[in-house]
Amino acid sequence: MIPYQTKTAKLVGSSTGEIFKKSRRLFNEIEKRTKRRPYIRSPYFKKQKVFFDYFWFHLNQKSKREKIIRLRYLGCAIDLISNSRNKPSIKINPNKKSEMLYRFGGLTKDKELFFVQIKEDIKKKKLYFMSVFSTDD
Which of 14, 79, 102, 122 could form a disulfide with 118 if both were Cys (CB 3.0 to 4.6 A apart)? Predict the structure, then answer.
């Protein structure tokens, strides 16, 4: 897996509220583009839509510290999904055989490694942005 070099830096802020506001602003820009469910088109998946249905639900299951760490990489994750053609690591979900998990590697503008996980429902042919996380935090 070759990491994709993003053009955006990770979100910076001194407080949790500041990081949360910046990440929601990024998400609201995507949300405004459609009247229905928010999505990003991905060149790796032949311009298929990648939906955000599970991202916020998955994020709310994490601790406050972990939420902030992951939200810092949201802008980089959006850039990676919308521009990357690099091959991810692919595996079948061990808990549910009808799902494939794609893990894309990326580098922020400051050369920090992070990963984006996308889930594909094989039966419905839908893609969902699940999570973004770094290795060093």
Answer: 102
Flag whether the pTM goes above 0.85. yes
- Of residues 117, 134, 1, the one with CA closest to residue 69: 134
Which is it for strands 99-107 and 4-5: parallel, antiparallel or unpaired?
parallel
The 10 Å CB-count burial string (b at 16+, else e) for 68-79 is bbbbbbbbbbbb
In Å, what is the CA distance from 57 to each residue of 37, 64, 128?
A: 14, 14, 12
Let me know how many helices (H) and strands (E) the chain has, helices first. Answer: 4, 7
Residues near 1 by beta carbon (within 8 Å), at least 6 away in sequence:
86, 87, 88, 89, 103, 104, 105
Ranges of residues in the chain whose predicted pLDDT is under 50? none
Domain extent for 77: 4-134
Q: What is the domain count for the chain?
A: 1
pLDDT of residue 15: 84
pLDDT at 14 (0 to 100): 81
